[in-house]
């Protein structure tokens, strides 16, 4: 960073740190103890799809990598596209296999990044639910290297449980690098796994 950047208040963008994902299992313990949220076993990665053979080949490699770890020929990863044109890969595990789910999400992000598609990565999320049926996602923003909670209101519709999101932010400050700019807490309506 140069002198002029410092003088004008500009800063370098945060580099993605995929290893931040490995903090999710400890955050899950905090969420369960403090708020009764437990993992659902579902997690997904969102990226802007790119047309072309190279990207298609990387997507096949990612799916083959994750499918290889699936016992009994199950389908651990499902591809979909949302209403906004973004692509999602949904990974499924049992709720007790949160570390394995996080490993899968890390592998997807790493594989896309290693093949030059890092700029297309948008976010990853891990889903939780409490006994009252409230859903919660811990969303990792790839380009910011930070997390934020996303809690859609039960019963459908596009309304957020903002008080819960702020409570979770306060709970997880010691476990995860939480995004401080609330304007970057983008809603992920209809995200696979949520």
From TrEMBL:
- This protein's species is Kitasatospora nipponensis
Q: What is this protein called?
A: SUKH-4 immunity protein of toxin-antitoxin system
InterPro entries noted in UniProt: PspAB-like
């Amino acid at each position: 960073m140069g002198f002029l950047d410092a003088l004008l208040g500009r800063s370098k963008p945060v580099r993605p740190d995929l290893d931040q994902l490995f903090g999710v299992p400890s955050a899950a313990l905090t969420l369960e103890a403090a708020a009764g949220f437990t993992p659902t076993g579902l997690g997904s990665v969102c990226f802007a799809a790119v047309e072309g053979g190279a990207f298609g080949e990387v997507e096949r490699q990612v799916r083959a990598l994750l499918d290889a770890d699936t016992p009994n020929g199950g389908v651990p990863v499902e591809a979909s596209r949302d209403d906004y044109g973004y692509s999602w890969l949904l990974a499924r595990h049992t709720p007790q296999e949160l570390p394995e789910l996080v490993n899968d999400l890390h592998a997807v992000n790493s594989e896309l990044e290693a093949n030059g598609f890092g700029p297309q990565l948008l976010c990853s999320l891990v889903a939780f639910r409490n006994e009252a049926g409230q859903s919660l996602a811990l969303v990792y923003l790839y380009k910011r290297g930070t997390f934020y909670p996303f809690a859609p209101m039960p019963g459908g519709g596009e309304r957020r449980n903002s008080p819960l999101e702020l409570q979770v932010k306060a709970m997880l400050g010691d476990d995860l690098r939480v995004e401080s700019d609330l304007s970057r807490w983008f809603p992920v309506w209809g995200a696979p796994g949520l």
